[in-house]
Amino acid sequence: MTYRSMQECITDLENAGHLIRITEEVDPNLEMAAIHLRAFESGGPALYFENVKGSKYGAVSNLFGTIERSKYIFRDTWESTQEVIGLRNEPMKALKQPHRYAGTGFAARKALPIKKNGLPADFEEIRISDLPMIKSWPNDGGAFVTLPQVYSEDPDKPGVMNANLGMYRIQLSGNDYEQDREIGVHYQIHRGIGVHQSKAAKRGQPLKVSCFIGGPPAHTLSAVMPLPEGLSELTFAGLLSGRHFRYSYVDGYCVSHDADFVITGEIYPDETKPEGPFGDHLGYYSLVHEFPMMRVHKVYAKKNAVYPFTVVGRPPQEDTAFGALIHELTGGAVKQEIPGVKEVHAVDAAGVHPLLLAVGSERYTPYQPVKRPAEILTIANRILGTGQLSLAKYLFITAEDDVPVNAHDIQALFAHILERIDLQRDLHFQTNTTIDTLDYSGTGLNSGSKVIFAAVGKPIRKLATEVPAALEYLPKGFSNPVMAMPGVALLQAPAFTDYDSVESEIETLAKAIEAQGPLRDCPMIVLCDDTEFMGASFDNFLWAGFTRSNPSHDIHGVGAGYKHKHWGCDNVIIDARTKPHQAPPLIQDPEVTAHIERLFAPSGSLGILRAKR
Description:
The chain is 26% helix and 25% strand. The chain is an alpha+beta fold. The strands form 7 sheets. Strands 5, 6, 7, 8, 9, 10, 11, 14 and 17 form a 9-stranded antiparallel sheet that branches. Strands 19-20-21-23-22 form a 5-stranded mixed sheet, with helices on both faces. Strands 24-25-26-30-27 form a 5-stranded mixed sheet, with helices on both faces.
């Protein structure tokens, strides 16, 4: 089905049993987010909030909460979109199989945006404060737009075909923002809007920005797509929705005719205000920092507009489904961009950017009987220099060899690498470099380090499945060893104090382990605050282990040392304890979670979900 609006999508989902209406009045301050989290956790349907306290507009969430529902939404355009993207990656396919790809031309015809005149007749001018002011987490700095489509144009090449459409969070209230006149625009490094703002600043001009909210669901998804070079987000929006993206210019600002809401305004050079905190996808709060402030020009809404939102938090969340959709649509793009790469997997359970797993080719020295990483190191550096992949901290990479490897089988890939890695040779660090803006494990905003774990060839060890005896004899303060997986042991450690104290503390631990003799079957040891929590699930290990550590500062080792400036060890020790400078984790307000129980009672709108919990 081709949706012309968010309202058409809601009606279709409701008729198919994929959406529930919530008739009770619900507070946008924490309650709506708590209801969404509960519905998502239970694998529940999309939610339409008819009665939002303080706003005349309804709101919808959990549209993309399951892959099945997302596929249903895009059921009539999914395959043709995949084919067109595939042809962007591999245009020779069309020449080799012309009959198979004949339909892509028809699909592509609907991809080009269409310019209209003036403001749509069903738009009305409103204020920021008329929107559902949704706050997700107790310590959030205010209300945020969580599914924005932020539009900006290249000052040197104006026009929609050179525009950028990105999902950068928008703070609507709180902090020092003047209500209804100023909003925050938080964008991370390696984002298209940053390039546009830099160009505008060099000209001494403000950057005109439009924020679209709602419209056909394809428009929301287009704002997060890492598209092949030359394929614009607006073209993709038309392609996936099966309908041209329609727009006009009003007062010099681009206005989407399909959006439910449009906010227009300008970002002036060097004009910032404190933005945040905000509960983010790593599972912690991103803290208050200076980010661009947008002076609001005008705000528009369709009559009977619906406000889409999501809740961002520790994975898995609704944006996990975004990631799966993106991988399925564009999974082949990275193979074209980086020669020799077979797979790259940004691990959702670890907060996406902290941990990448990759499989590549190893063809440099096929004549040598003993293999060592060579080509995969070249590939690793290409990965860490490519777009948003460059935000990663940990990259585990191996090659297709005698044993098939799947980067999406996380535990199996870890085991494959740990069985083969020479820790004296195969760890490669990049220090004082950039990491994810939202990651507070580093040395400052956007600042931290990276490490590559690379391994190929035959296994050189068998991984321990039980706690090795050497870890039963620990210095004072270290206790409760458990296995996270074969070859990875967790140790509970004293509370972290400061990095000056850590060196001697972990040196004592390393010497105590070394004194017990070689520990070949347990190449990785992870220090944590609570082994009961980290060891409770593999996802807990991935989340806490890789979001709470900075490779340059938090990787230590048994038998560690330098040789010609290269650091290596016999057993790697990762210090994944919580550090004082790190952001606090996200915790729901218990009073709010108790208060929303009324909706899940047998007589409530969501009583049907009670049994699913």
